[in-house]
């Protein structure tokens, strides 16, 4: 069976600047893969290409062997690839429930949406439960805290039952307790799906990561288990040269 | 408490019932024919405004070219009335070659044969179908082209405005086909009824009011549906909606087409009510005026759009009677005032007033305030 995500020789150029430069990446079905790298390494750009937001200069992305080249964003979503954004975007005027319901309804024929929503579908109820937002179901999403918004976004993804989830820094700016909760959420989500997470937070990485890919200046610098990557001198150099708190093996 | 919430839930339908009774029963009895005719005209504008409320208020598409669709509907209706008339009046139907009779203005501008574009409009079913189908078709094609290219915001607004300007130039330029600057006028009958007759005009008024009422209910249904939620989501985060697996271009096109259809229908009703359709009624300025009216009434509520159109229509008539030019400035000032101070318009003001009143009457809810107010 072919891997669920296969990135081949991917390059992205912004006004002459190579944000991605010949990236190869293979993610197997059911993996929880972490994507790390210093600021500007190209992590978000990689997600953007996979989800159709950015067009690559060369190379391609295969989903279960099928090329995603030329597909538009919503078409890729319909093939089972969902994502969140670095700065979470929820629909503030809609209630938490309506946000989830809209996410869950995306496969319905457009005409059937012309009816009023009656009750709460099983999928939505489940997403409310998983994300712990059931108590806030009827509040407008605009009142949510930063952490709650991230959960709502993850919940919206779950309600769509995607095969592959791409999460861009889901715990950035979260409190310690919120991080923990998100980590649990991720591990439970990853049980029957493929999840690719971009994350800076080393503590978070140590606790939850299995496979890690390190990007640096648009290239794959290293790949392996957390231990292997932490021991890699090139990775240490890249991180120590930049931000102390990001240093992979600072303590060990 | 339960009774209170139930009452609150009944408020919307209650207001609707009262307004409907006023519009359908009281107004036709109480207003003299001239005033009733004016009200019918405002209600035609309100139908356009309803479409603007959907497209702009709910969908975030600031359309400054609704006059185009209003005009398409109006001209379709006008052409039909003209053809019926020409064939029934022996004096104006010159028909030198024995072909179908020509409308009066064509004879005056030296047209000898009925243009091919006109011929099918002699059929009332075709004409009525075109009233809605024409605008819907054009809006659909335009919407798919434009929204797919992710043209939005001010760019979309300017584009629609340019469309309105171009449409006027087209109409004025084709004198023999469209009646030029004068447009189409001198209508005498509608489906066999004398248009000058008071009872015909009263009947027309009722039809306009009914059409508005039905469209309003339909639009409300749409706004409250899942599709309505999706529309708001597209308005507030089009790019995010894509990643939910929906194509915003399709959602926007559907709503833009609905608003165009409403404008077309309004234009068709306007023609027998007012007795004329001409480029001056559907260019950049009239299109803009209706957007201003929607903003004044409150663009985020469908009722606000309708209210705005009627209030501003009435205000325009009253002011223009006294100071013709003053109206333009007053309107501009009002628009700026509303957009800066009360972005939710009259309806928003009414809602805040009601909340303030309720808060005073029911001091039990916000505990901290209770103390101060009682003290
Ligand atoms: N639309 C764009 N136009 C021009 N340059 C861009 C664009 N998007 C990203 N870049 C550049 O491409 C490089 C990679 O950016 P990217 O956002 O993928 O980095 P990242 O790894 O996600 O970083 P961070 O950790 O800060 O989120 C950066 O140097 C960035 O400035
Ligand atoms: Mg990033």
TrEMBL record, chain A:
Provide the leader sequence positions.
none
- Which domain of life, per UniProt? Bacteria
**Name assigned to this protein:** ABC transporter ATP-binding protein
Pfam families from the entry?
ABC_tran (PF00005), BCA_ABC_TP_C (PF12399)
Fetch the SUPFAM superfamilies from UniProt.
P-loop containing nucleoside triphosphate hydrolases
Coiled coil listed as a keyword: no
The protein's UniProt keywords, in alphabetical order, are: ATP-binding, Nucleotide-binding, Transport
Q: Sorted alphabetically, which InterPro entries does this protein's record hold?
A: AAA+_ATPase, ABC_AA/LPS_Transport, ABC_transporter-like_ATP-bd, ABC_transptr_urea_ATP-bd_UrtD, BCA_ABC_TP_C, P-loop_NTPase
Ranges for domain ABC transporter: 5-242
State one molecular function term (GO).
ATP binding
Q: Which SMART domains match?
A: AAA
Query: RNA-binding as a keyword?
Result: no
Query: GO CC annotations?
Result: plasma membrane
Instruction: Name the species this protein comes from.
Output: Planobispora siamensis
UniProtKB/TrEMBL annotation, chain B:
InterPro entries per the UniProt record, alphabetical: ABC_transp_permease, ABC_transptr_urea_perm_UrtC, LivM-like
Its localization reads:
Cell membrane
Domain of life (superkingdom): Bacteria
Q: Which residues cross the membrane?
A: 12-31, 38-56, 125-147, 154-173, 203-219, 250-278, 290-315, 327-351
According to the UniProt entry, its GO molecular function terms are: branched-chain amino acid transmembrane transporter activity
Show the GO cellular component annotation of the record: plasma membrane
The answer to whether the entry has keyword Ion transport is no
The record gives the membrane topology as: Multi-pass membrane protein
What are the entry keywords?
A: Cell membrane, Membrane, Transmembrane, Transmembrane helix
State the protein's name. Answer: Urea ABC transporter permease subunit UrtC
